[in-house]
Specification:
The complex is a heterodimer of chains A (179) and B (271). Chain A has 179 residues and is an alpha/beta fold. Chain A has one domain: Rossmann fold. Chain A is 33% helix and 25% strand. Chain A starts with a strand and ends with a helix. Chain B contains ten helices and seven strands. The longest helix of chain B has 21 residues. Chain B is extended and about 85 Å long. The N and C termini of chain B lie far apart (67 Å). The chains are: A alpha/beta (179), B alpha+beta (271). At the A-B interface, strand 1, strand 4, helix 3 and helix 5 of A face helix 10 of B.
Chain lengths: 179, 271
Amino acid sequence: MQTVKMVVTGPFSAGKTEFIQTVSEIDVVATERKITSEAERIKETTTVAMDFGRITVDDNLVLYLFGTPGQKRFDFMWEILSEGMLGFIVMVDSTRPETFREARSILETFRAYAPTPYVVAANKQDASDAWSVDDMRIALRLDPKVKLLPCVALEKESVKNVLLELLYSILAEMEANSR
Amino acid sequence: MALKGNLRDFTISQLLNLIHLAGKTGSLTVDGTGDRAWVAFRDGKLAYARMESEDDGLVAILYRAKKLTRAQYKVIKSRSGTMSDKELGLLLINANYLTQEDILASLRNAYVSVLERLFTWVEGLFTFEDGFPPLDGKITLQISLENIIIDASRRLREWEQLQDEIPSLDVALKFTDRPGADLRNVNLSVEEWRVVSYIDPKNTLKKIAAATKMNDLEIRRIVYGLLQAGLVEMVRPEGAKMERKKPMLPVSDPEEQISLVNRIIHRIRSL
């Protein structure tokens, strides 16, 4: 059986676990613990090691989706998780501008680990207080060439779109390299 | 008994607080990742400090403080021989080279600067030995730790924020292609202009800091401002060897790799 992996990263509470859960054919192997920090108590649990989802492509190929822990004190896991990835997705909570700076920093860190293709997913775009994608691009200081995609991690079509856009970028890079 | 530990578990501000509140006399050695700091305290006050990588002689300190020109520095250095800092200080005052205030202020800044740098160390083995160490003719001071701790804690918060924003100095800068971004219309300080003059995808921030004689905090502070203003963006330095962690693909042939990605695309579409 052949396997490939993609990584879903982003700040704490950006929606990484939900994103993977929405498309994974297995129950996500989540390693969640109760939040201990008061400052980060905006949800009950957080991922401390990784989330792990699976999509069987065909009889010979499986795609694994790995979600990184969002809390900064677990960032030692990031490099390990990024090893050999096909590409990565940076999830950003569109309703929490206070996390944009950290998202930018995570993006830079992952680019340094492995300069593979990536996309940025502006999650929670269905919320009334979500920042527009255009405003987020400026706030996140993203180059116009970087794909910043509206996303609702709980909706399958939305998650599929993000994954497909990343795959198109991977394909484009492979085709360019093979020329 | 010596106090031993790691800054990871007991921070430098906790250590200084302890020394300050207990009015301790002794010497603190901290082995950081790239340097070693050695600091002496008397009755809970800072008396002397040095970094192992730096010349801690009085002449070098005065030169770094711009109290001596390069020519003066060279002459005094070659003629001072085995003279102690105390003797040399007296000589400089008597020869009307410098005042006592000049010398004390330069030493104070140098000692405090060592502690300020220590505040940026998140890891390092430390040992505090009781008893005032022999300092062989060095000039010791009595600097209260309270303000240093408060100032440094403030800077530490800024440092942490800047490190989040600019995690590494091994990146380079390039001017943004944003239409309307014109440096001629922006008011920059002298320091900012100095940094701007070195902006080139070939120059890492480390190189720019060395060329402009700025420390990690200063260069990060200026680059952060330029980034926020949208004038520059961080890029991988040109010609830098990229430790490229290639994707682990089960097939090596480019055509097969493309086919593999197409299979994944097909599957995702069908979900």
